[in-house]
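4.2 Preliminary Data

To establish feasibility before requesting continued support, the project team ran the inverse folding procedure on a target of 141 residues. The structure was first converted into the token representation described in Section 3, and no sequence information of any kind was made available to the design step. The complete token record follows.
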């Protein structure tokens, strides 16, 4: 039996709002206009809204950083333009937190402060590995 993960609404420093979740999101949570999902298991969920599923190993980073960067920037732009954007991986912590860290950088947080910002405003365990932290640090370069 899996535990249902509640969707968390995250307001980035520039006022842009995204929602973050795990695969076992509650069906009572608001449906997004667009989802950026970081685990292949989202494909089995048959989500009816527009979405992208990235190949991103748990506790790691994707092989195709350039494509991942573009997808994160596109999702951020959708949120800037008023779409309800959802970010989700399996558990909603490491990979989801990493994307939130990248979005925080896009919203004006320095890369060096992004992990702490995400841990303070989303989940204390977010951005779980040094490899994920390095991705956030490199995001602004």
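Position-by-position output of the design step:
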């Amino acid at each position: 039996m899996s535990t249902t993960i509640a969707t968390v609404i995250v307001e980035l420093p520039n006022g842009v709002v995204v929602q973050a979740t795990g695969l076992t999101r509650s069906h009572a949570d608001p449906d997004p206009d667009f989802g950026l999902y970081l685990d292949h298991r989202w494909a089995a969920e048959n989500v009816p809204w527009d979405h992208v599923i990235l190949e991103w190993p748990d506790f790691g980073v994707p092989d195709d950083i350039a494509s991942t960067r573009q997808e994160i920037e596109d999702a951020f732009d959708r949120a800037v333009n008023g779409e309800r954007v959802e970010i989700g991986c399996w558990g909603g912590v490491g990979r989801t937190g990493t994307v939130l860290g990248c979005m925080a950088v896009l919203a004006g947080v320095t890369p060096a402060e992004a992990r702490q910002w995400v841990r303070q405003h989303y989940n204390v365990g977010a951005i779980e590995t040094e490899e994920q932290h390095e991705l956030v640090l490199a995001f602004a370069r």
